[in-house]
From TrEMBL:
It is found in: Cell membrane; Membrane raft. It is a single-pass type I membrane protein. The lineage of its organism: Eukaryota, Metazoa, Chordata, Craniata, Vertebrata. It comes from Sus scrofa. This is Myelin-associated glycoprotein. SMART domains: IG (SM00409), IGc2 (SM00408). The keyword Lipoprotein applies. GO terms for cellular component: membrane raft; myelin sheath adaxonal region; paranode region of axon; plasma membrane; Schmidt-Lanterman incisure. Keywords: Cell adhesion, Cell membrane, Disulfide bond, Glycoprotein, Immunoglobulin domain, Lectin, Lipid-binding, Lipoprotein, Membrane, Palmitate, Phosphoprotein, Repeat, Signal, Transmembrane, Transmembrane helix, Ubl conjugation. One of its GO terms (biological process) is negative regulation of neuron apoptotic process. Residues 268-349, 357-436 form the Ig-like domain. InterPro entries: CD80_C2-set (IPR013162), Ig-like_dom (IPR007110), Ig-like_dom_sf (IPR036179), Ig-like_fold (IPR013783), Ig_sub (IPR003599), Ig_sub2 (IPR003598), SIGLEC (IPR051036). GO terms for molecular function: carbohydrate binding; ganglioside GT1b binding; protein homodimerization activity; sialic acid binding.
Length: 654
């Protein structure tokens, strides 16, 4: 059917029928097509006539109704028959094939299938062969041929024929593309070729779409008629797949319904996507994105502009195995088709333990300078960062990625090893770093000289950074290295402390003074070393015999004092001279006032004992020595004493 064509053809010319709207279009066609048969008759008459017929090539009607097949024929004018007869055949134009007779004007004999169903509406004398068929049933659908009978041999079967289509549903015409948001026109069309029963139309399922507009009865290209109803509306995405219906002959026993589903095209809308996701490092993560669109969208997972995965589908899942902190960030899901696009983002937060903290390297500072130490790390969530020194907390921050320690004026006590520790609920990491404070030498108060028999040893303990040089100044000369077998200097460094020992052998008496001088690039310090235990040198000069004599005198004095006190009824305890107390140098309980570290002091004292050649307590040279058996103990000369002291002065550096 060509009633919706944009033009129609008249002779060799084609005339456009596009107007301001579909209604004007159809009205123009109705006017022209109604006049078409009259033009055809006039043209045929002017040509003098010939054998020919006109009828629609196809026509349709509802089952149970009727149909009028319009028909006109012509023959040569010179025949001038007195009576014109005609015959309608079904499915074949040749009488010798004995096709079923639909109608026959001469005898009124028809095939049983058409008995009571067919009659001629036209006047054959006026060359009108229009046929009416009633009570249509599906078996009556087919080809219908007309044969003109003018008498005698003047009979002619026209090749033109009409195909009858028996239908039972209205025709709903939907535009080939329906886009959401754009107005569309849907039409319902039914045949109206039964003069005895004209159809009426009503829409089904149009609620919410729009109000229908009945256009009316329209004639088609070949003279057939249709009843048309139009429905205008603006579809939405929700209307996709909506079932729209049209009903003919409502409220009668002859109700026919037809339906069409709307295929509404619309851009994608993402309807499903993960919210923000938290995952522990090493776990599996699945990111899901689903979109609604028609046609189906192209879904794409992206991160930082890079395409990770894409597919034409309604949903797309991005699988991440054993996630790492590097995969932490914002992921985007993009959905697009020919009608638009949509996108959503999801943030993936990978939870992990702190990384090993980084610090600004080993710091070297001069005493009194300001030192700033930065410790930083990375973790999720942010960690607690703490800086320790010898288990003492110096600074801490909570839920920060870095910590800065400020030391406004560093001192030698700030020198040492520090630890930066970062921790959260997923783990702990630590980094050690050193602060080296450089300062001028300081000679500690524990520096002194001690005498034992004919040997004098002087200890000079210096605290400095960088390592200083140490020299001992004697009345006659300076000693920095071994000069003779009887004079030598040995030094050992432990941390910031440098212990230097001067050993003088074969000394009949202690030198009047010994000065220790230490220097580095930050300054020079000197100190005269005090003597401790000078009485020991005196005992060494007296010797064993003198010791016995002195002991006997001392006993006599004690006895005298005792008798005197008894007479006075006063009980007194014997006392000893202060010189019997062992030198502080050899006391294991000796502590340096203001020592920077306990462990450093202990190591230093151990080193001093080794340097001084002492194992445990030093040998007592006081009164207890006189209790030994001198007859069995050989007298040690100066040579033997030197060997013994040399054994005690052995230095072993590990």
């Amino acid at each position: 059917m060509g009633w919706l064509a944009d033009s129609f053809q008249w002779g060799q010319k084609t005339f456009p029928t596009q107007g301001d709207g579909a209604v004007a279009h159809l009205l123009y066609k109705m006017i022209f097509l109604t006049a078409l048969p009259l033009f055809w008759i006039m043209i045929s008459a002017s040509r003098g006539g010939h054998w020919g017929a006109w009828m629609p090539s196809s026509i349709s009607a509802f089952e149970g109704t009727c149909v009028s097949i319009p028909c006109r024929f012509d023959f040569p004018d010179e025949l001038r028959p007195a009576v014109v007869h005609g015959v309608w055949y079904f499915n074949s134009p040749y009488p010798k094939n004995y096709p079923p007779v639909v109608f026959k004007s001469r005898t009124q004999v028809v095939h049983e299938s058409f008995q009571g169903r067919s009659r001629l509406l036209g006047d054959l004398g006026l060359r009108n062969c229009t046929l009416l068929l009633s009570n249509l049933s599906p078996e009556l659908g087919g080809k219908y041929y007309f044969r003109g009978d003018l008498g005698g041999y003047n009979q002619y079967t026209f090749s033109e024929h009409s195909v009858l289509d028996i239908i039972n549903t209205p025709s709903i015409v939907v535009p080939p593309e329906v886009v959401a948001g754009t107005e569309v026109e849907v039409s319902c069309m039914v045949p109206d070729n039964c003069p005895e029963l004209h159809p009426e139309l009503s829409w089904l399922g149009h609620e919410g779409l729009g109000e229908p507009a009945v256009l009316g009865r329209l004639r088609e290209d070949e003279g057939t008629w249709v009843q048309v109803s139009l429905l205008h509306f603006v579809p939405t995405r929700e209307a996709n797949g909506h079932r729209l219906g049209c009903q003919s002959f409502p409220n009668t026993s002859l109700q026919f319904e037809g339906y069409a589903s709307l295929n509404v095209k619309y851009p994608p809308v993402i309807v499903e996507v993960n919210s923000s996701v938290e995952a522990i490092e090493g776990s599996h993560v699945s990111l899901l994105c689903g979109a609604d669109s028609n046609p189906p969208p192209l879904l794409t997972w992206m991160r930082d502009g890079a395409v990770l995965q894409e597919a034409v589908a309604e949903s797309l899942s991005l699988e991440l195995d054993e996630v790492t902190p590097a995969e932490d960030g914002v992921y985007a899901c993009l959905a697009e088709n020919a009608y638009g696009q949509d996108n959503r983002t999801v943030e993936l937060s990978v939870m992990y333990a702190p990384w090993k903290p980084t610090v600004n390297g080993t710091v070297v500072a001069v005493e009194g300078e300001t030192v700033s130490i930065l410790c930083s790390t990375q973790s999720n969530p942010d960690p607690i960062i703490t800086i320790f020194k010898e288990k003492q907390i110096l600074a801490t921050v909570i839920y920060e990625s870095e910590l800065q320690l400020e030391l406004p004026a560093v001192t030698p006590e700030d020198d040492g090893e520090y630890w930066c520790v970062a921790e959260n609920q997923y783990g702990q990491r630590a980094t050690a770093f050193n602060l080296s404070v450089e300062f001028a030498p300081v000679i500690l108060l524990e520096s002194h000289c001690a005498a034992a028999r004919d040997t004098v040893q002087c200890l000079c303990v210096v605290k400095a950074n960088p390592e200083p040089t140490v020299a001992f100044e004697l009345p006659s000369r300076n000693v920095t290295v071994n000069e003779t077998e009887r004079e030598f200097v040995y030094s050992e460094r432990s941390g910031l402390l440098l212990s230097s020992i001067l050993t003088l052998r074969g000394q009949a008496q202690a030198p009047p003074r010994v000065i220790c001088t230490s220097r580095n690039l930050y300054g020079t310090k000197s100190l005269e070393l005090p003597f401790q235990g000078a009485h020991r040198l005196m005992w060494a000069k007296i010797g064993p015999v003198g010791a016995v004599v002195a002991f006997a005198i001392l006993i006599a004095i004690v006895c005298y004092i005792t008798q005197t006190r008894r007479k006075k009824n006063v009980t007194e305890s014997p006392s000893f001279s202060a010189g019997d107390t062992p030198p502080v140098l050899f006391s294991s309980d000796f502590r340096i006032s203001g020592a920077p570290e306990k462990y450093e002091s202990e190591r230093r004292l151990g080193s001093e004992r080794r340097l001084l050649g002492l194992r445990g307590e030093p040998p007592e040279l006081d009164l207890s020595y006189s209790h030994s058996d001198l007859g069995k103990r050989p007298t040690k000369d100066s040579y033997t004493l030197t060997e013994e002291l040399a054994e005690y002065a052995e230095i072993r550096v590990k």
